[in-house]
Design goal:
With 108 residues, the chain is an alpha+beta fold. 33% of the residues lie in helices and 11% in strands.
Length: 108
Amino acid sequence: MLSHAGPMPLSARDSALLFNITKGPDPLDHQALPDDQADHTDTHPIQSLRIGLAPSLFGFPVAPEIDCGVRRVITAPRGSANMFVTDRRPPENIVEAVRAEELEIICA
């Protein structure tokens, strides 16, 4: 099951506004980076865009209308922007995959 803690924006602009409000260093984290002062609502042409697509997470089914909508958006013309879509399917058994990575790190 997936969950989301915090506000759920309805648009990319709402998401940028929320990011502007919530970004910045955590005063309780001594390793936090300073605020970059960037305004994420600035509009500028996209030169390059990389999208990681996970068609299904951990084997859970995706409603056909959701899958169709996502694929329609990622295949829409983007003007002169270079767009790269990469299939990012997580392993079916995430626990075994993590254990294998840990073992590889320990043995390296």
